Structure formats: structure tokens, C-alpha cells
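Note to self: keep these together.
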Amino acid sequence: MRKKQMIETNRRMGMSEPLAISGVYLARDERVIQVRSDEPLTVVSSAVVGGDLERTKHIVNMHVHKSYDCRAPKDDLQLVARELGIIEPFVGMMTAAKLDRAQVIVECDSQTTVIAIVTVGLSHPIAAGVTPAHRAEPGTINSILVVDAQMTRAARVNAIITATEAKTLALIEAGNRAPHGGFASGTGTDAIVIASTERGSTVEYAGPIAPIGALIGRAVRRAIQNALHAKKEGRIHCFSDKERRGLYRAIYDRRDVRSHFTSEPIADDVLARLLDAAHHAPSVGFMQPWNFIIIQNREVRRNIHDIFVSANQAAAELYDGERRSLYNRLKLAGILEAPINLCVTCDETTLRGHGLGRQTMPETALYSTVCAVQNLWLAARAEGVGVGWVSILDVDELRTTLRIPEEVVPVAYLCLGYVTEFGTEPDLEIKGWEQRAPLAGLIHFERYGATDEVRAGELLSSISTDRESKDKS
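Structure:
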């Protein structure tokens, strides 16, 4: 491989993300996908490098340009492995498919978990048994399957058959055709890796109707389907993989902050970005009903804090026994500690948007303003700024203090500031006030009340994020 084609050092790979199988991690950028395991995985594969290996901790899928000459693929993969710091024997594959379109699918049952990591390139589809022998061309489907089970060698070979059948089924279902006009079965250079953790009881069968085989088949089929759908749509508007991870991190790591504020001021450019993010929230009819009151004056904040103290004492009276005791121990506002307070209001009488979408649902002005709050909150998390929503306030007293007109609704009173830490979980969950409800029980199909936790669980099993891995642990 030419020097200019070599990837840089492994610092470009970023952080490894834990997968839904304990001890197995995924790192990826635009040039390499790397699956790493704390303990050696037992493997069988058709990979360019390591196809004869039986045990490895590293599986690499490397991106090459469509003009790649294929003169020394093993050497090129070895170079990449060294750049990644891999000194042990590894399994290595190549693909011209864009790695930010790689599909990571999780399938699990009560006994085990299967993860499929699939890249799909279909520049040159073929039909096995029909397409004549010819020189390999760019375009390949690479499948990495990690199975959290102890598998016999026969079961691993069986798994290859099942995965291949599922791949071909997905291609046929999508109507993909080979040059001769018949259905495509794959490409001329498809590769596969079956890797098992060798934990748990021994699995002897992995055919499509065996429990593990069913998981493998579903994972591969869904991965191919998702990739083909993305390819059909072009994904020209899709964020890069790194950008998507950043967005989801902001969502999952956002916290309602009431303490740990520092005295460090928020620079004007940071505050401006947060307000601009809020101002770019969606609003029904493009009404943009929001306004933002920036409050830094210590005396004004002290007055607001007095309103909170009075309202908080009254709220505590609504609880009895241990619940009241717990309530009194909660830190519910950082009005004085945070360097900036921000009141987000909603003008329900605004003429912007000319009433579009509000005739039947006038409350959409409030809903739109809440979207602005969420935008600001996520942007703040990305900037390392903590946000706390104080709702325990007498609205009339707040209006008087901030001189808010009667027709304008104070929607959110927020405390903003840098913090010493963000909690690993919501503070109210850590303190035992409430727990996060399982999402599967909140999903209804076709009509309200029609819940189906099995079906919802199957839907949600496609999630592959740090959050899901944590929830499964």
C-alpha cells in the first residue's frame, strides 16, 4: 500500500465502545472497524488474513478505495494492524464499502446474545452457480458475527451456512439482481467471520431453526436490509458515524443539574451558541413563540430563590413519611450557585406563523417552546455546561419579579453553569425518587393500549449504543 494510503495511528480510532457482549468492544472510523475482545475468541473465517486462525482477540475490517489494486492485501492489512497497535495474530478483511454505513445489529434471547457487524458493497453483484469465473472487482459484503456461547466447530460451520442463507434471502427480498438478470446471491468476494466467546453451555447446532441460528439469521438479514435501505436512500443527509455518536452521547449524558456548579463564567460566545441552538428548535407554523430572559444580577436571583424556598416548603407538605423526608433531602435548585439564570417564555399571542397548525391545537405554542428548551439543553451538554430546570416557583410572583406580561407564559426557569461533574444517571434516580420506566412497556402498536412487549423488545434489540450495553449488564 502506498504511504499516502496508509491510515494514521490508532489515535484516530477514538474510544472503543463496549458492545452488548461483556468484554467485547468496537472501535471504528472512516478507515477501519476493529472488534476487540478481552479474552481470545474462537473463530472460523474466510478472511484475507487469519483465515486459518482458531483463536484471536482482534478482528479488523479495513476500508480501501475502489481503485485498490489488490497486489498485496495481506501486507497492507499487516501494516494497518501495526498502526493499530495489534501485535498478536488477527483476522483481517477488506472492503470498499463506506464504514460509516456499517450495520451493528444485536439479537438476543434468554440464553445468549449475537452481534452482527456488517458492511455491504454491491458494486458487482453475482449469482453463485451462474456468474462465470472472472477477476475480483470492488464490492463485497463482509460479516462479523460475535456469539456469546460455546460452539462446536460443526456449529460454527453451521453458523456460516445460516448467515449466508440469511444474506442471500435479504438480497433477493430487496430485488437485487446479477448481471445476467437473475437474483444476486452476493458478490464475488464476500467474507465472513464467526467468533464465539466460549462461555456457557455447549452449542452443537446453529442452523436457521436452532436457537442461536435463528438469532444469527435475524441479525444478518436485518443488517443487510438496513444497509440496502440506506444505500437506496443514498444517506446523503446522514451524519457521519462520529457525529451520530456525539449527538446520542449528548442525549444520554444530559442531566438536570442542581449542584456541582463552579464559579467559572460562561463566555459570551458559548452563551450565544446555546441561545442560537434554542432559537433553531422546531415550532408549529414556524411561529417561534419563545423569548429568553438572561438573569445574572445577584439581587434578582436572590428574589427568585426566595420564591423557590417558599414554594418548595409548600410542596414538601404534600408528601408524608419517608417520601417527605426524601424530598427534603433533595437539592432541587441552583439559582444562586449557577452564574447564569435563564427564563424561557412563550408568547401565545404571537402573530408569527399566521396561526398555521394552531387552530385545533393552540397549545402547540407551549410545546414548541419546550422544544427550544431541549435544544438548548443538549447544546449545553455538548459544551460541558450544566443546566437545571427549576419548576418549583409561584408563577405570579415570578411574573412580577421579571415583569413578564400576562399574555406571556414563563415555561422554563433554567440555571446554567459549568459543573465539576455530570452524574452517571439522573440525580432523582440515584437518590431513589424514581426509576426509568422500561421503554418496551411504553410502545403501543396501531392504537393506544395495544402494547406488546415481545414485539417492542424485538424492535429495541436493534439498538447498539453504549447505553444499551450498559442496560444489558
